[in-house]
Specification:
Length: about 425
């Protein structure tokens, strides 16, 4: 009998996750019902923004240029607002904000496969068939999102971010596919309407739903039923909450929209600022198109770098000006870097031996560079190398979290949220 109940739990939960309820909206099963890690962190609305460069960015052409070398490529380094730090000439907006950012130029990850690299750079752990590790966004939401927040604690923009692993579906990302428009089913169906009488119909539906769910959950139906109830409670609260308006970019000044860039990534960055301002604890914005095995330089010059530059530069500037930077950590990264040597197709291949990420905000120091690569960018120079565990520990430290804090995996084993040490130069 208990086995039958367990199967029923799962079927019931998955049925509604598939969107069969009239009040389900895309990604609703990703809504958070999260515990708080500490009143002070909640009060300060600590947040993480991940700029995810899907495909593996050629960081040697962006953050760690090698002018005059055979590996150097077509671009030249240009000065920034941070004394002594130069980045690509095609990133002028980011250059103006570099005093708020730092570069890790000595990252070594050793995963050159897209899937494995993506998992590693989202979880800080090598993919494991036994343990499904949570992404950094899920961990941050687990630790920082208050239960009272009507918005999801973890939101991905452009494409789904990596999931919650063993933390469970309550900590998975809610996906906004088009940042220029509110999520498709954020409001009740048109047949219900929005006037007082029709909204009372929604309230009656909720009361009936809660009555059925509470009875179902009380019958010892397990975690699936409990999660299902928590998810739907978040959904109803979001429908009724004025916070749902945060997804509407129409109230922003045209000049600000233009500064961010009138494209999906730029609008995603603008939406990210609005979301962290409203209390969302993690936002990941996807910018694809970085798998540049051929014609790398025309691709970078034509769209990739100008798009990244406008969105990222405007986002940092906006967060700083609004006083949000001190409580928001931003990291720009992908699966891996790309080869220093340029291939026969005028492209760069996968390279995880030594590459760069950019981060800043929160408690992190700006205007710093950790580590260096050798003359041609083929290896890390000296002994200053950072692992992805060190990077994650640094990010968590910047958010005010203890990297040694433990969570339990699906086997019940305690694990620190980061298996590494914060980079001392940056914290």
């Amino acid at each position: 009998m208990n086995g039958d109940y367990a199967v029923s739990d799962r079927r019931h939960f998955l049925k509604h996750l598939a969107g069969l309820s009239a009040l389900a909206f895309p990604g609703m099963h990703f809504l958070q019902a999260l515990r708080a890690s500490g009143p002070e962190l909640q009060k300060n609305k600590k947040s993480l923004i991940v700029l995810w460069l899907s495909g593996g960015p050629p960081t040697i052409d962006m953050w760690d240029l090698k002018p005059g070398e055979p590996t150097g490529g077509e671009f030249r380094p240009a000065p920034t607002s941070a004394s002594g730090i130069q980045i690509c000439q095609l990133l002028p907006s980011v250059a103006r904000q570099m005093k708020h950012l730092s570069i890790v130029r000595a990252l070594r990850t050793n995963e050159g496969d897209h899937m494995r690299g993506r998992v590693l750079m989202h979880t800080s752990r090598v993919p494991n068939p036994i343990v499904n590790y949570p992404s950094i966004g899920s961990v941050v939401s687990h630790e920082l999102t208050p239960r009272s927040l009507a918005l999801p604690g973890f939101i991905s923009i452009g494409r789904p971010a990596d999931g919650p692993g063993f933390l469970g579906m309550n900590y998975a990302p809610f996906t906004v596919q088009n940042p220029g428009q509110p999520p498709a089913n954020l409001r009740p169906p048109d047949m219900i309407g929005r006037d007082a009488e029709q909204m009372e119909r929604v309230a009656r539906r909720r009361r009936l739903f809660v009555s059925v769910e509470d009875r179902f959950t009380a019958d010892r139906r397990g975690e699936a039923a409990k999660s299902h109830s928590e998810i739907y409670d978040k959904a109803y609260r979001l429908i009724a909450s004025p916070l749902g308006k945060v997804f509407n970019l129409g109230t922003e000044r045209k000049s600000l929209v233009d500064e961010y860039g009138a494209n999906s990534f730029g609008q995603g960055c603008l939406l990210a600022r609005r979301l962290v301002e409203a209390g969302v604890t993690c936002v990941e914005i996807d910018l694809g198109g970085w798998d540049l095995h051929a014609r790398v330089f025309p691709a970078l010059k034509g769209q990739r770098l100008p798009t990244l530059d406008k969105g990222m530069g405007a986002l940092v500037r906006d967060l700083v000006d609004r006083g949000l930077w001190k409580n928001t950590v931003l990291v720009c990264m992908g699966e891996f870097g790309r080869t220093p040597r340029i291939n026969q197709n005028a492209g760069r291949d996968h390279w995880a031996r030594c590459w760069s990420v950019v981060l800043g905000g929160g408690a992190l120091k700006g205007g710093q560079v950790f580590g260096a690569t050798d003359k041609q960018g083929l290896d890390i120079k000296g002994e200053e190398a950072a692992s992805v565990g060190d990077l994650f520990a640094t990010i968590y430290k910047g958010l005010g979290l203890d990297p040694t804090q433990q969570i339990r995996d699906n086997l019940g084993r305690p694990l620190p949220i980061a298996e590494g040490k914060p980079i001392k130069l940056l914290v």
